[in-house]
Each structure stands twice: as structure tokens, then as C-alpha cells.
């Protein structure tokens, strides 16, 4: 079973798929983060996440 690499939670909502240049500011390429850890790192690291940071993929469209 997968878990969030930020908090260790196994029952979580995954973060949206972000473009590589944005994700690399928040996590390692292979890291999996829950949405809460993604937003926590965004605040801590002062990373701008806009609609343009989202990858155009089915996962993100389904969550809209």
C-alpha cells in the first residue's frame, strides 16, 4: 500500500499532478505527497502554484 512520503499517512488524497519544474521545487521526482503536505511545502518553500502548474492529464481533469 502506498503512503505519503511527507507525513506517512496511508489513507490520503494525493496531490494533483504538477508540471515537473514546479514539482521539483516541492519534492523529489519519485516522492508521493498528500494534498495537505503539498500545500504545506508550497507555503514553506514559497512556491507559486497556479492553474498553469497543473499537468493536463485525466487525473487533474477528473478532480475539477
Structural class: mainly alpha
- Alpha carbon gap, first and last residue: 26 Å
- Provide the helix percentage: 25-40%
Number of domains: 1
* Major sheet summary line: none
Write the element-wise H/E pattern from the N-terminal end onward.
HHH
Work out the strand percent: under 5%
> Residue ranges: pLDDT <50 for 5 or more in a row?
none
* Overall shape: globular
Average pLDDT across residues? 93
Radius of gyration based on Cα positions: 11 Å
Number of strands: 0
So how many helices? Answer: 3
Structure description:
The chain is mostly helical. The chain has one domain. It contains three helices and no strands. It is globular. The model has no long low-confidence stretch (mean pLDDT 93).
Task: Describe what is shown at a glance.
The protein has helices at 20-26, 35-45, 58-63.
How would you summarize the topology of this molecule?
Elements: H1 20-26, H2 35-45, H3 58-63
Keywords:
64 residues; mainly alpha; 3 helices
Amino acid at each position: 500500500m502506498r503512503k505519503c512520503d511527507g507525513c506517512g499517512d496511508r489513507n490520503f488524497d494525493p496531490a494533483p499532478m504538477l508540471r515537473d519544474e514546479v514539482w521539483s521545487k516541492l519534492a523529489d521526482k519519485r516522492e508521493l505527497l498528500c494534498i495537505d503536505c503539498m500545500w504545506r511545502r508550497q507555503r514553506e518553500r514559497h512556491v507559486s502554484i497556479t492553474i498553469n502548474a497543473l499537468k493536463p492529464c485525466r487525473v487533474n481533469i477528473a478532480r475539477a
